[in-house]
Design brief:
Helices cover 19% and strands 20% of the residues. It is an alpha+beta fold. The chain has a six-stranded mixed β-sheet with strand order 14-17-19-20-21-22, with no helix packed on it. Strands 10-11-12-13 form a four-stranded antiparallel β-sheet, with helices on one face. The chain has a four-stranded antiparallel β-sheet with strand order 18-23-24-25, with no helix packed on it.
Amino acid sequence: FAPLDTYPCNRGFDQHWGTIWGVTDHFDPFSLVHNEEPIFTESIPEDFYYADFVADKAIDMMDEMTADGKPFFMYVAFQEPHWPVQAKPQDIAKYKGKFNDGWDAMRERRYNRMLEMGLINPDEMPVATNASGRKWENETNKAFQSANMEVHAAMIDCVDQNIGRIIDELKRRGIFDNTLIIFTSDNGASSENYNIGDFDRHDRTRSGQMVVHNSPNPGGQLTYNYLHTGWAGAVNTPYRYWKTTQFHGGTAAPTIVHWPAGMAKTKEGTIMSQPCTFLDVMPTCLELAGASYPSFYAGNSIKPLSGEARSIVPLLQDKDSWDDERTLYWEHENGKAIRKGNWRLTALANGGWQLFDLAHDLSETNNVAAEYPEKVREMKSLWNTWAKSVGLNVPGDITETKTELIFHYPFDGNLDDASPSKYVLTQSANGVTFGTGKLSNALHLNGNAQYVDLNTNGIFNTQTTQSTFCAWVYDENTAAPNASNQSENGMYIRDEIIFAQKDNEGTGRIYLYARAEAPTGGGATDFFYNSFLGGSQHRASSGSLKPGTWQHVAIISNPVDQSITYYIDGERDCT
């Protein structure tokens, strides 16, 4: 199923029962092995379910591992509730109708329960909206969506049952109190919806029955269904987003630590807020085992432990050696994040950086990047340095600007950006490819369009608000000729602003368009600014366009005199 040297039994584990691939049928995982040998190659027991199998083998292995009286280490990894959502009928039946009121109600209900149980502090964890943006009341097939959530809940229920079986076995053997149990998850709830028919996602059972993708009757072995983002966001309450994003909804997994015989009595039953990562598991186990991290295994050199990894034993034993200001880094599928103390800087894949003050906003609802630009620069620089050190090549790995630009606004002399800046605008992907920009991700015209459309409609109304739109522009002089055989590159911003276009009365929109034009008769390329108000154009000062150079362009609107002023590299160019 994969190169044998990557199997767990060849990476330090004495035994391995489980799958090699991670996305498999829960009733018949095709890559199931014991060490290197496939099992159930001909047929599989009718009552097989992966979570039950994992617990069975964990309990069986205790006989062998406890025979000599020595401590043992066991990594018990359940697939559930990973895609596809499949569960046993008796578990699904427990949740029939439990989610008919939808994901919005579920999110509110769970948040209030967390408050009542004292799990969260409302001053640190404000209510976050579901990042899916979809309201339950607008769903057209509520029964189908509810059924998928019922199956997801049943999968978690089954995992809970099997963890209980393992704990009961530890108690039966008299070793429960002196067993360190770290119970956690690798990510938040997932909304992934894989295609089927690939190597690890068979489109039929071993008996030849076809599997239905997104079946109207989810849960059985012949169905490959998924959890909608609305549900995933609600499951991750009180956080936003879900697996694959680097927001807390994707990365902040709660962790339960059990160890009565070794934990300080003052820590028993408490909630600790210090951030830890999976990197901490190895040094924790090494410290408790009195072992050192090896430099070689099976004749191969091993990379040293990450500098960010640390043992959590001081936390468990109430010692004063924990660093609350530790710096943690994330990257997954081009999403990225960094946490330093109570500051967290994060970005969606191909999105801009957002800054959150976790002391008052653990649920990441209020982007304060505009209020703390120096903190953004500091943390972004740290993330870039780390990314390079681990060999990442991620879009958005941007170097710092060498020049700070100050804009002298014509209307009030205020040097701060007057526009609301806590919003992340969604760019149209039509005709645009993503690349590396000056300060954030760049949008490159790819030949299918001559402009980038940033739709800010409804976010704010600049008819009453002074607004500044800024961008770093890089003209490679490679744009395709237009109908007049002139080469154009451009960017325009659409928003509710000042007054409406003559041909689109009442929309409250205006188009601001900056473009580079190469005259058909030859000569230097000119830089034009076009407000699209009656076709008026403004030619930039001679020499203002510098092909092959990053330039900062600012478009400032003033609702008082209904003027638009353009700046290039911090210098006022025209109004």
